Amino acid sequence: MKYLNFFFIALMLILFTSCVSKQQQKVVNVDMLLHNGKIYPSFSKPDFTIDAQNKKPYTVEAIAIDNGKIIFVGTNAESSKYKTKDTINSIDLDGAIIIPGLIDAHVHPVAGGIKETAECAFPFATMPDKIGEKVQSYWKPNYSQDLVSKDKNGEDVKWIVGGQWNSEFFDGDGNWSEDYFKQIGKDKPSLLPRVFLDRFSGDYAVMLRADSGHAWWGNSKALQSSGFTVPDDQKKEAIIKLKGEPKPFKTTGILYEDRSNLVRKDMPDWSMEQYMSGLKYVMKNANKLGITGMREADALSKRRLEALKKVVVDDEATTHLAAAIQITLAEDQLEGPPIIPDKAQICKPHSGSYPNRVLNISKLENLRDLYKTNHFSTNYAKVYLDGVPTPARTACMLNNLDEGYKPGTPSNGEIRYSPNQLKKILAKLDKAKFDIVVHTGGNGALDLVLKAMQPGFSSKIELAHAGFITDEDYILLEKYKENVEIGLSPAIWYPSPIIEGVLSVVKKDVALKFYPIRTLLKKQIPVSSGSDWPAAVEDMNPWVGIQTMVTRKNPDPNYKCPPNSVLQPSCTFGYSERISLNDALRIYTLNNAVSMNLEKETGTLEVGKYADLVVLDKDSFTKPITVSEKDVLMTLFKGKVVFRKSSIAINGNTNTQN
Angle at which helices 272-288 and 109-117 pack, to 10 degrees? Predict the structure, then answer.
């Protein structure tokens, strides 16, 4: 009996020790625990589809984070074993919503940062006289940003650079648009555009960028400092003789596409400090919007690449960053006459001539290797193929644009590279294993790319701005869906002044099918999205793009379409192509992560991925068409809080981080 009692006591001790051991094993220390929420780890699985009426139970309520990564996603009950090392980081969400961080896969954060922090900036809707007053306000001593270059005589030239003016101001010849000013009930200015700016610019050279980013407006001093002959007669255009062209080039002061480089090449660059300051400003504002990833769509200078790399190396980046290097940085100038368009070409040479250049792939590879880091990818090449389908008429279209600014002269737009040139460029980039971003503003440019792809092509191509798609090209897109994606940018798939500009020049049966997002998803053609800011849109707010994918209406309830607009009476644009909020959020999260080759690191909330997430107000999904930037309560990047509103409490602490 004594031995039996001893055995019983020993057994109880073992069982007790085992229970204590198991309880101790259950406790896992973590950096942060978010619980009691409605968590959407992904928008690609039916289990996590948005259910605004709460008909389905939320199967995910908690998420645990350690060392910047997600180590647990599950229910509140399952999360009980996770304890934060610091109690302030155990956050009761009180029903708030968590989604993956949003990604802007096509944006210009370097240019946008400079615009917001250094340039002479003004809203798109600013009228000419007010633009002049804004320029005048940037004279010394008010203008603190010194931009100074030397002219051909070695004299200092002071510059004012900024934007962005309404593309509808001018026709394709660079004259004030009769139609636009008549439509708004105002008299058009009587002076040539360059002379108009002269009244406000003093002794400064002035260059102002269009809302599209594809045209510039210069005053007489800017033109003269770059070698143009500026006549004393204010009614005459400035002229310059170009190598290889029989006739001098003339301009009113409006320079479209490549022609702007005749002046921009002489403009002084911003300092590294200014670029860095602008980038930090952009990232801070991106975090407020719930953005945790951005791809620079046009790294057009080494200094811009250096700024992007430096912000990552200095551990000051609060979003994932990548950059597409503009291939013009690695092109060699050829001697001899301009390259002749081949017979297959449907669009005229870009702004008057094909670039007499050839891609030096070794130079581009060297740039990629010089600026890349473990957390900053430069493995993207940017190819500008055409322009924009606005009154400038520089997008290459298969279907004729409406009759141009000269009666009886239809135009198919412009192209930068001939089919043979493009085929060689894509082959070189593919062999060097670059992913490629091609600007395809018109369906002619899109068609050209799809037909230039050779058997065995392996690189991934973002067909940026490809809003016009023909039936033939749908077939090619489905054929190449493993390699191509339609880049939905800029976010202008709703009624707006810029869409009215598109409708004014593109044939209506084509224009009204702009951005067929629902059709693309139905055909399972990969899509990504981007704001394209600061081009075409006032800011990089992704929620405008998301909301208008769902509604195809202007997000401003007070917006009214012009009385003579073809979008009347409903004032919607492409209503049959609207998609669900679930699909829109998937595009802005997982799809964009795939586009940036980050799908193994971010884009969904899964164990092992970075804790890039957004906390939204608990009622955000009850009325999907109202979800907006106002609903963003907190943003985490790699597990670190990079934005928090005071309305979200962390164990009683409501300090705002913004």
Answer: 100
Residue 162: per-residue pLDDT? 95
Rounded distance between C-alpha atoms, residue 391 and residue 502, angstroms: 7
Lowest mean pLDDT among 36-40, 115-119, 333-337, 367-371: 333-337
Determine the straight-line distance between the first and last CA of the chain, rounded to whole angstroms: 72
- Could you give the dihedral angle defined by the CA atoms of residues 298, 498, 522 and 385, in that order, rounded to the nearest 10 degrees? -40
Q: Distances from the Cα of 436 to the Cαs of 13, 322, 327, 478, 603, in angstroms?
A: 67, 13, 10, 18, 21
- pLDDT given at position 406: 47
272-541: what fold?
TIM Barrel (3.20.20)
| Long-range pairs for 227-233: beta carbons < 8 A, 24 or more residues apart | 227/152, 227/262, 228/262, 230/194
Domain boundaries, the chain: 2-101+608-644, 119-264, 272-541
Backbone angles phi, psi at 566, to 5 degrees: -70, -10
Q: Quickly name the fold that domain 119-264 has.
A: Diaminopimelate Epimerase; Chain A, domain 1 (3.10.310)
Answer for the pair 28, 83: CB distance below 8 angstroms, yes or no.
yes
Identify the CATH class of 2-101+608-644.
Answer: mainly beta
Residue 352: predicted pLDDT: 43
Q: How far apart are CA 414 and CA 175, in angstroms?
A: 19
Nearest to 585 by CA among 68, 43, 6, 15: 43
Task: Establish whether domains 119-264 and 272-541 are of one fold.
Answer: no
Each residue of 371-395: pLDDT tens digit?
999 999 999 999 999 999 988 888 9
- The answer to whether the beta carbons of residues 326 and 294 sit under 8 Å apart is no
